[in-house]
Amino acid sequence: MFFMMFAHRRVALHLAAFFLWIVSEPTALAAPAVGKVPKELPGGWKLEWHDEFDGTKLDTTKWRCEEGVVRNHGSSQAYSKSCVRVRNGMLRLVSRAKKTANKVYDPSADKWPRNIKFQPFASGSVTTEGVHLFSPPGRLEFRARIPKATGVWPAIWTMHVNKYKWPANGEIDILEHISQEPDKVYSIFRWGLDGGQRERKVVRTKHIPNYSADFHTYVLEWDDQIMRIFIDDQEMGRVNIADADYPNGDNPLRTPCYIIMNTAIGGPGTWAESPRPEQYPVTFLIDYVRFYKK
Questions:
Q1: Which domains are delineated in the chain?
Q2: Average pLDDT for consecutive 10-residue bins of the chain (294 residues)?
């Protein structure tokens, strides 16, 4: 009897593990975009850089993985290379409820994030920082499907590279989502007020019913005059580039930028709610990233 109960328990555990694998690796529902990559788009845009994630591993000539505790004070994740996968034409950023070492931990440090040894969640983040920069006039296009679980905080965003520290350097959140607002997406233009550390934000939101159920297309398009964000071909919002002029004549939005794509996990004091471990693992799917120039 004990053996039979033990055997049934093993079967149940294997089935549970298989179910979690299916949830974290949504292959059948995650169809990549069909058709050839457009080399030109209306308006004079020509393809300059892209990744269709057609291989079996991340292309390190285009991306690098972030590791450890990087940002979002109070969040629950440590980023890990093991959570970054390329499979079936998709980049997959997996988030797991798994105790994970902080790769940047320093036992002599007295400040966050280096004084954190472990985090309760592992998650994925990739960036082009240090690998590739994008300069205006440009059009960045992404096709992605966000994960669904309490506490998820996925984002696709850019950071501008110049002499200023955050937030004065300029940050554009093309997609930002928090699980406690399941049918809402945020797009946020951000820079420093008059070049200082006081932040100026232009926030736009869009209600998308059953948002996590399908893929959506996100675009950041900017030139010397206007920066715009589109979701599914509908304009989310725009800013005049001149609004970010600093008194010394600098403008952070006229400088090159790099991409970050990640899933943070919320926690006490963060914008996102605290996670429920039983709802994980989940996966942020990115079908492609393309950059067009005029």
A1: 31-293 (2.60.120.200)
A2: 41 43 46 80 97 97 98 97 98 98 96 96 98 97 98 98 97 98 98 93 98 98 97 98 96 98 97 98 98 96
Which structure tokens are listed for 84?
């970054």
pTM: 0.90
Query: Is-contact 236 229, C-beta < 8 A?
Result: yes
Tokens in use for 276?
A: 């429920």
How far is the C-alpha of 153 from the C-alpha of 20, rounded, in Å? 20
CA atoms within 13 A on the CB side of 167: 16
Give the residues across from 230 on adjacent strands.
Answer: 219, 235
How many Å apart are CA 221 and CA 211, to the nearest integer? 23
Q: Peptide bond before 120: cis, by omega within 30 degrees of 0?
A: no
Q: Is 254 left (phi over 0), alpha (psi -120 to 50) or beta?
A: alpha
- pLDDT for 32 equals 64
Short-list 14, 111, 122, CA closest to 76:
122
Which SS3 state, helix, strand or coil, does residue 17 take?
helix
